Amino acid sequence: MPNMNPNKTAMPVQDPKERARNFEEVALGYTEEMAVSEAQRCLQCKHMPCVSGCPVNVHIPEFIAKMAQGDFEGAYQVIGLTNGLPAICGRVCPQENQCEGKCVRGIKGEPVGIGRLERFAADWHMAHSQAQPEKPASNGHKVAVIGAGPSGLTCAGDLAKLGYEVTVFEAFHTPGGVLDYGIPEFRLPKEIVRREIDTLRHLGVEIMTNMVIGKVLSIDELEQQGYEAVFIGSGAGLPSFMGIEGEALVGVYSANEYLTRVNLMKAYLPGYATPVKPSKRVAVVGGGNVAMDAARSALRMGAEKVYIVYRRSLEEMPARREEIEHAMEEGVEFHLLNNPVKILGDENGWVKGMECIEMELGEPDESGRRRPIEKKGSNFTLEVDTVIMALGTSPNPLLRSTTPGLEANRKGCLVVNEETMQTTREGVYAGGDAVTGAATVILAMGAGKTAAASIDEYLKNQ
Ligand code: FAD
Ligand code: SF4
Ligand code: SF4
Question: Whole-model pTM?
Fold first, then answer.
């Protein structure tokens, strides 16, 4: 008999007051008993709607059936057939819009906690198994992957399993992409990212860091060095600003810069040479996951007050519900229907406040969300010493400007054939945020998988 509890087994979490001041993981993970009990909520539906919601088609009912019997290693092995980064996906996938969004248990209650179970299986494997995959025999073909984010790593892993000699060229000094420099430690411990990347290294994937392709080497030069195909997974790391007065003041950051300093350059640890300015009152502008991450990081960096300033209402906020709730529990204050018009500076050029205006919602715009309209004369000043702009990002133009034949659309995203992920240049494939603009980890992984299959097809027919 399945467990017919309408609610998911609750996830143990750190106390909000305590966690708001430390960088340790917020969600603590299921115990074995909790995992088995949650797995028993799955009805083992024959038509498997949940699988169609997963961009990498994890065999969900099959792995959950093993979990329900307490076979955690077996569950991990099933997940690993299609997902090379399960501990990461179990933590950061927006499951409510993907696998869990399609789960039939969600019709009359909460869906099965597929992400939580996936995380449990991956963590259990890491804690209990030393086994590493064997490096497959080489087929003699060389492929270059640009960018060690989830799209590049997935493409590299899938090609390595097929016997390709894959080298990943990463601009930063560590691999992981946004998993490493963007998503904070308290949501995704970096040790987990390291461990999942180590598994890829065991498959034979070589990762070369500090290699900015387009500067150190061009794609033409990679091809001259014998790489027969190239995958571009260079992400969308170029931040946007509002273009308002005061954005050049000291104390204004893009969320990317702020999070990179905190996550990658360890600004929160003493002795590191990349501190962030000590802040008492911080305004984060934006309403997505990146804004929530920046706001919650600012609290942990010691700010007394952290505000989210968002021009629409809570209903339109694009961030995951869970992240919004966690931010609220931790004490982040939400200034909804407010928009900055000017950042104010003191005589030394440091931020001392932000002038905002109240907004109201009009008719839906092209995105389907109600258009925010300024309420004339409702200006007010928020006293802050730091402003973090979390307004979205776009792909860096470096690769397209140094690679003949590579076309991009007007937003700077690379143009690909959506079935094969081939770009407008033969032998060069692309996927992830470099193609879609800022999206999700699992969509980037799905694109990396599709590209790996196409590259295999292309090279087999050469
Ligand atoms: P990236 O992860 O951006 O990786 C690209 C890599 O390419 C980087 O390491 C970069 O240094 C490297 N690179 C760039 N140019 C070059 C070059 N010329 N040469 C060599 N290397 C290069 N998604 C979710 O699903 N869930 C979340 O909770 C979530 N939270 C997020 C929080 C933040 C703060 C941010 C910024 C994003 C978040 N996302 C989340 C989005 C998700 O992380 C991205 O969609 C995903 O990482 C895209 O993967 P990618 O491989 O395309 O690019
Ligand atoms: Fe769900 Fe993400 Fe796992 Fe797919 S990879 S089953 S979308 S949590
Ligand atoms: Fe189990 Fe839900 Fe998938 Fe049905 S839809 S098999 S209940 S996870």
Answer: 0.93
